[in-house]
Amino acid sequence: MTKKTKKTIIWSICIVLAAVIAYGTYYAVSFYDGLQSLNKSGESSPFHEIEKVDAKVPAPPEWEGTEPVNILLMGVDARGFEEGEIPRSDSMMVASIDPVKKKMYLFSILRDTYTDIPGHDPNRINTAITHGPNTAMKAVGDLLGIPIQYYVYTDFQGFIKLVDSVGGVDFYVEKDMNYSSKADKNEYDINLKEGMQHLDGNAALQYVRFRYDAMGDFTRTERQRELIKAVAKKMQTTTSIMKLPDILKSVSPYIDTNLEVEDMWKLATVAYKSSMSGSEQVPPMKLLKEETIGGAAVLTVGNPDTLKQYIQDIMSPPDPDPETEEGQSEGKESDPAGKESNPSASTSTSTSTETDRN
After folding, report:
1. Which is the CATH superfamily of the domain at 39-315?
2. pTM value > 0.85
3. Where are the alpha helices (DSSP H) in 49-100?
4. Domain spans of the chain, in order of start
């Protein structure tokens, strides 16, 4: 190999390394700026006009990094609202991550659930955010019996941008879904066909909004959880990770959170290593009662303490009783067919309706 050839190779390697370092620096800076832009303050915060009211509620507890962390996810329908006005939550979820067990849980909260709103009269849980994010976190935390450290707030456009930014998701739509409304000039009509298909942001929004079937909001919250899990899985792909700065830039105008950059980075690291271990509707059907309060149809919780225990049993299942397990084992051995009986229980369910926009 000649000296000239060696120099050419060395220079080529140096140029490639310089390009990689330059891209890495650009990626890191863009990624950091994108994360930082999600945490808004002052005039840029959607809650700037109610910050003084919300400040009366205790600040959320700090996350130390080793105990389970709970994040309130809120999606709103901001159609027809002026800047500074906060609409009720159209959807509410709590994502819980246990950094020690490396497990994640996703709870969707029925928006008609009637509960205490800190500093205000009892009301539907979806009204809590109209008083500020601290109020919403405290209300949800008190309802579930767990501390809520963080919130993420977005609207229809933020959801659409997120799904489009990851390239859409492949998803099975379980039935035809159709809904039309002239009230919003048919901008948010729903028209989906049954079957496996690729959903872009607009189609994904149609799927999570649909509630015009026998179970209304009950099945809608289940669909929302399943779609969110599909989007989260797509974001863990190498392609999406490489596109993170662009994804953040795209969704930033429509998202607000109290997460600091360092917390986001820790959470992302923990979540990437964790597996989904539970996905439930809250409150569960067995604890719900339909009532009319102040002329409005609401869902009340029969026993608030039982609901809190229900959440704990999901996140930290009680150890099985050795004697019970032994009895079950003996029962199986004495069964000549080698099968267990599987009695089924039926529960009656009903739906509630409201005049809120879909």
Report:
1. LCP protein (3.40.630.190)
2. no
3. 51-54
4. 39-315
